[in-house]
Write a structure and sequence with these properties.
Cytidine Deaminase, domain 2, 5 strands, globular, binds tetrahydrodeoxyuridine
């Protein structure tokens, strides 16, 4: 499968993280159903609230290119200067889970948290966003 390639690309994206304030560097690699991989990093701002998470950067890149169907995302994140063997799993924030729920089937979309190239955990979106609010709730 594409897991190993996705993990590699998430670590590549982490190198571009712009995080001068938190010094917490996050990378993401999002796999579209079209087989393409979209990389994202967190992009911070001096005014703090304009900050964009790595996951949403990846989603918005894909969606802005007309791609709206996805299979999986890998997320990696750690404080600046962390040695790879000391890195921990980095779970997506609630806002990013909500963006995932807008576009992904909660029963199928896989969220993979990688600590190293070989060590990762995998979840389904439904398990990390139970009782999520979606368009179905509005259009009942
Ligand atoms: N961050 C992400 O990019 N993704 C996450 O899943 C968690 C948090 C970023 C936002 C901010 O730039 C930094 O990590 C610290 O919160």
């Amino acid at each position: 499968m594409k897991e190993l390639e996705l993990i590699k690309e998430a670590f590549q994206a982490q190198n571009f993280s712009y995080a001068p304030y938190s010094k917490f560097h996050v990378g993401a690699a999002l796999l579209g159903k079209n087989g393409k991989i979209y990389q994202g990093c967190n992009i911070e701002n001096a005014a703090l609230t304009p900050t964009n998470c790595a996951e949403r950067t990846a989603f918005f890149k894909a969606i802005s290119e007309g791609v709206t169907e996805f299979e999986a995302i890998v997320v990696v994140g750690s404080p600046e200067g962390t040695k790879q063997e000391d890195a921990d799993y980095c779970a997506p924030c609630g806002v990013c889970r909500q963006v995932m729920a807008e576009f992904c089937d909660p029963n199928r979309f896989r969220v993979i948290l990688a600590r190293t190239q070989e060590d990762y955990q995998e979840y389904l979106l439904k398990d990390i966003l139970p009782l999520g609010f979606t368009g179905k709730d509005i259009n009942k």
